[in-house]
């Protein structure tokens, strides 16, 4: 499989497949495909696995696209302004992503749910208790809100972020929350909590979480009509 990402702030990844190669995606992300592609829809591992993906923000069903001949193309587009990033998995690295991070992947990539095991991180960590987990061998394409900043953390190296800005991280990165100190900082600063990530491993930071984008648009929206 070969791919090209185009489109600027409204990106699309165009994948070129040879005969027998398969891509899968969440329902609704496919933008176009050539006539030599065959589509099949299933839960991708049983009903329970499909329900698990739904809990993490995706759909119960996945679409599978298989090339019936060489040099067939399929395009997957993001649903919000931002970036599409490719992450190559080699069987030894596992990626944890935010809800709705999954866009598409090679069929050899496993898409599952990931539970945060600490009460505090689930409530105040920005994305809730249930996230997405990507493992296996192959390339997975993730949706990032806004621009993306990549940080490679050394063992023991920590980074504080505003909750919601963590788009994805390697499973080796530990995640926790830290309360903001000082009454003025809480009342007039960045809120009650920071997210703390600690290496070793890579972290992908998004600059404009969808929740913040929606909040910034509220003052410009017309009032709802009254009955």
| Class of secondary structure makeup | mainly beta
| Separation, N- and C-terminal Cα atoms | 54 Å
What is the CATH-assigned architecture? 4-Layer Sandwich
The major beta sheet can be summarized as:
11 strands, antiparallel
How much of the polypeptide forms β-strand, as a percent range? over 45%
Whole-number mean pLDDT: 82
Name of the level-1 CATH class: Alpha Beta
CATH superfamily (homologous) name: Mitochondrial biogenesis AIM24
In percent, how helical is the residue content? Answer: 10-25%
String of helices and strands: EEEEEHEEEEEEHEEEEEHEEH
- Low-confidence region ranges: 119-126, 182-189
CATH topology name, in short, is Double-stranded beta-helix
Overview of this structure, please?
It is a single chain. With 227 residues, this protein is mainly β. The chain has a single domain, classed as Mitochondrial biogenesis AIM24 (Double-stranded beta-helix, 4-Layer Sandwich), CATH 3.60.160. The chain contains four helices and 18 strands. It has helices spanning 47-55, 119-124, 183-188, 210-217; strands at 2-6, 12-17, 22-26, 30-33, 37-42, 62-67, 72-77, 82-90, 95-97, 102-106, 109-115, 130-145, 148-153, 158-161, 166-170, 174-179, 193-198, 201-206. Strands 3, 5, 6, 8, 9, 10, 11, 12, 13, 15 and 18 form an eleven-stranded antiparallel beta sheet that branches. Strands 1-2-7-4 form a four-stranded antiparallel beta sheet, with no helix packed on it. It has a three-stranded antiparallel beta sheet with strand order 14-17-16. Strand 1 (2-6) and strand 2 (12-17) form a beta hairpin. It is globular, with a radius of gyration of 19 Å. The termini are far apart.
């Amino acid at each position: 499989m070969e791919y090209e990402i185009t489109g600027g702030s409204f990106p699309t990844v165009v994948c070129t497949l040879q005969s027998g190669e398969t891509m899968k995606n969440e329902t609704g992300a496919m933008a176009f495909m050539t006539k030599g592609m065959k589509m099949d829809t299933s839960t991708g591992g049983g009903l329970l696995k499909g329900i698990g993906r739904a809990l993490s923000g995706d759909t119960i069903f996945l679409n599978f696209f298989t090339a019936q001949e060489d040099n067939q193309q399929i395009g997957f587009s993001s649903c919000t302004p931002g970036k599409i990033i490719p992450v190559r998995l080699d069987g030894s690295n596992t990626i944890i992503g935010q809800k709705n991070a999954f866009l598409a992947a090679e069929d050899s990539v496993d898409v599952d749910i990931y539970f945060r095991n600490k009460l505090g991180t689930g409530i105040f960590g920005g994305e809730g208790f249930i996230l997405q987990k990507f493992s296996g061998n192959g390339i997975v394409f993730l949706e990032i809100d806004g621009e993306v900043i990549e940080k490679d953390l050394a063992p023991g190296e920590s980074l504080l972020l505003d909750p919601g800005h963590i788009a994805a991280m390697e499973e080796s990165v530990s995640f926790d929350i830290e309360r903001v100190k000082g009454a003025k900082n809480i009342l007039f600063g960045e809120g009650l909590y920071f997210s703390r990530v600690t290496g070793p491993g890579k972290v992908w930071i998004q600059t404009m979480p969808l929740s913040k984008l929606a909040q910034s648009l509220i003052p410009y929206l017309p009032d709802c009509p009254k009955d």
